[in-house]
Design a protein that fits this description.
The protein has about 575 residues and is α/β, with parallel strands linked by helices. It has 23 helices and 20 strands. An eight-stranded mixed β-barrel has the order 12-13-15-16-17-18-19-20, surrounded by four helices. A six-stranded mixed beta sheet has the order 7-8-6-9-11-10, sandwiched between helices. The chain has a five-stranded parallel beta sheet with strand order 2-1-3-4-5, sandwiched between helices. It is elongated, with a radius of gyration of 33 Å. The structure holds ligand C2E and calcium ion (CA) (2 copies).
Length: about 575
């Protein structure tokens, strides 16, 4: 932390000298000018005006006591009672011993005796008073992060703001640095190792700051904020540092991602500037597995910039969020259905469907759920939308049942947020009952990562739902990090493979072997395997060969409106 402070301490502070004697002003100014920017006032009145003008940037006042207009005592009193101004330390200038006690009582930080015969001592006193006052603010506000020695978040913001006050014209970059899937590193190697990784990152950041200036904090477990003077060479410096870092740890699993908001707009709040950097950083989430984005080097460390594209995306997101309620009322949301076929026999047989939402927006066209589901998950709106889909799906099962005399079970997606809703079970039972259905006709898809988020809560919830008769499929299996141990304790009815594995199954033998492995796991758990995202005949044949039970994908059909789905049911007859 000390290193970080030094950078701020190097900034030239502003000091006000208040004295009615021109010769005294000049003498003192000559001494202080070496290390500080100096401004002058001739009496208390004038000083007060200047202080108010420079309220935010003034670091210290050197104050003579005996002056016309308003004397030093009066000014001292005024300053001491003002909640904003009292933070500015005042050193009293006096030739009378007796005045010292009184001025200290009035809130002066120190005094300097006249005449000014020891410049070094004077300068040292000025420095010390400023340091004490600044440290005081800091100590009162927060603490530092014990693990890395960097600032904590509120402390950091405080300092970043101070930095802006002192150097309003310096171009600054806001950076957010994050460890990809840090919780997995903790799980795999233990907390002590995780802490060591964070400490190393803290060290690296401090080193960079020593070189280029700026400040940093650890703001949440594995997220670091860095505020540094603008630079253009992130590509080189970051690659270099990251590779050094990974080599030092001898662990290629540790990938970092960096979001950069360069030349951060100082007219917006510091918090907002870091939100933007965070947005850029989040854009890279998971990119090391998908291998997209600015990925480079053996350790696949990545960085990206906040840019106009992200800004537009932000605005777009805002718009979607603000329009959701209206869209629900106006029935802009449509539920589509995608068939799932059992491929165990000679001929594929339609066994169920997945309900997938679409937003048919009057101006923006059809918006896919990938664009709004994550947004709505972030602010609770998903609750309403999911219930709308669940109700529509139940009504649809009923319609098909009445029309064709067969039950086509439909699976709905249950968002991870829903798992925490104590009312979930009741709501689902009500929806099913209102449409005279059995819970067994209703399937629930829950993504694997929701299980890893909070395995205890989810196991309890899923147990209850299954006891009610609902069938639960684990969605996106293979994308999370369930351990075999955990899986065997999980109450589920099917494993649905993550689409990523299917994508390259024909080209990549490793992916094929992964699928085989997952089929083995499913056998061990005695549950069927569903493969989704199946687009080609070749993928279909390979999956059949690997032992998959059920297939969903464009190979059979895209998600389609219910009227079109009617034809698929009719074809089965
Ligand atoms: P998911 O649950 O993994 O759904 C499968 C996604 O794969 C769907 O994307 C589907 O249209 C797409 N897909 C199906 N077959 C193929 C194929 O052969 N090739 C390719 N490339 N893609 C295929 P979609 O509809 O865009 O949905 C994306 C995600 O949004 C879903 O992923 C799900 O997590 C979420 N979602 C969709 N509807 C809802 C909903 O009503 N509630 C909640 N909470 N989430 C939903
Ligand atoms: Ca799904
Ligand atoms: Ca899926």
């Amino acid at each position: 932390m000390k290193e970080n402070l030094i950078n701020i301490k190097n900034i030239r502070r502003k000091v006000l000298i208040v004295d009615d004697e021109p010769i005294n002003r000049r003498l003192l100014g000559f001494i202080v000018d070496r290390d500080f920017d100096v401004i002058y006032a001739e009496n208390g009145m004038q000083a007060l005006e200047i202080i108010k003008e420079n309220e935010k940037t003034l670091s210290l006042i050197l104050l003579d006591l005996l002056m016309p207009e308003m004397n030093g005592y009066e000014l001292l009193k005024l300053l001491h009672t003002d909640p904003e101004l009292r933070r500015i330390p005042v050193i009293v200038l006096t030739s009378e011993k007796s005045a010292e006690v009184e001025s200290l009582q009035l809130g002066a930080a120190d005094f300097i005796p006249k005449p000014y015969d020891m410049p070094e001592v004077i300068l040292a006193r000025v420095h010390r008073s400023i340091e004490l006052a600044e440290d005081n603010i800091i100590i009162n506000e927060t603490e530092k992060d014990g693990l890395t020695g960097l600032y904590t978040k509120s402390f950091f913001y405080q300092y970043a703001k101070q930095h802006d006050h002192y150097s309003p014209n310096q171009k600054m970059d806001a950076l957010v640095l994050n460890v990809n899937r840090f919780h997995i590193i903790n799980e795999l190697y233990g907390r002590a190792y995780g802490d060591m990784v964070l400490q190393k990152i803290g060290e690296k950041i401090s080193n960079v700051l020593d070189e280029v200036g700026g400040i940093a904090c650890r703001c949440e477990s594995d997220t670091f904020f860095i505020y540094i003077p603008h630079r253009d060479d992130y590509a080189e410096s970051f690659t270099e540092n990251a590779e050094l870092f990974a080599a030092e740890l001898e662990n290629p699993r540790i990938n970092l991602r960096l979001g950069i908001y360069e030349n951060a707009d100082k007219s917006t709040d510091i918090e907002q500037r870091f939100d933007k950097a965070m947005l850029a950083c989040n854009k890279l989430r998971g990119s090391h597995t998908l291998n997209t984005g600015n990925t480079f080097g053996a350790y696949k460390t990545s960085y990206t910039y906040y840019d106009t594209q992200l800004h537009e995306k932000e605005l777009y997101s805002e718009r979607l969020i603000s329009e959701m309620d209206k869209a629900l009322d106006e029935k802009q949301f449509k539920v589509f259905y995608q068939p799932k076929y059992n491929i165990k026999g000679e001929k594929p047989v339609l066994v169920s469907a997945e309900a997938l939402i679409r937003w048919v927006h009057p101006e923006l066209g059809t918006i896919s759920p990938g664009a709004f589901i994550p947004l709505f998950e972030g602010n609770g709106l998903i609750h309403k939308l999911d219930r709308y889909v669940w109700r529509s799906a139940a009504e649809q099962i009923k319609i098909w049942k009445d029309k064709y005399g067969v039950s086509v079970p439909v699976s709905v997606n249950v968002s991870r947020i829903d798992i925490y809703d104590p009312n979930l079970e009741n709501e689902l039972l009500t929806i099913v009952a209102e449409n005279s259905l059995q819970p067994s006709e209703y399937l629930l898809e829950i993504t694997e990562s929701a299980y890893t988020d909070n395995s205890h809560q989810i196991v309890e919830t899923v147990k209850k739902l299954r006891a009610d008769g609902f069938r639960v499929e684990m969605d996106d299996f293979g994308s999370g990090y369930s351990s075999l141990n955990m899986l065997s304790a999980l109450p589920i009815d099917a494993l649905k493979l993550d689409m990523q594995f299917i994508k390259n199954i024909a080209e990549n033998n490793k992916d094929y072997r992964m699928v085989e492995l997952m089929v083995d796991i499913a056998k061990f758990l005695s549950v069927p395997v569903i493969a989704e995202g199946v687009e080609t005949e070749q993928q279909y044949m390979l999956l059949k060969q690997a032992g998959c039970d059920i297939i969903q994908g464009y190979y059979f059909s895209k998600p389609i409106p219910p009227e079109e789905f009617n034809l698929l049911i009719e074809n089965e007859k």
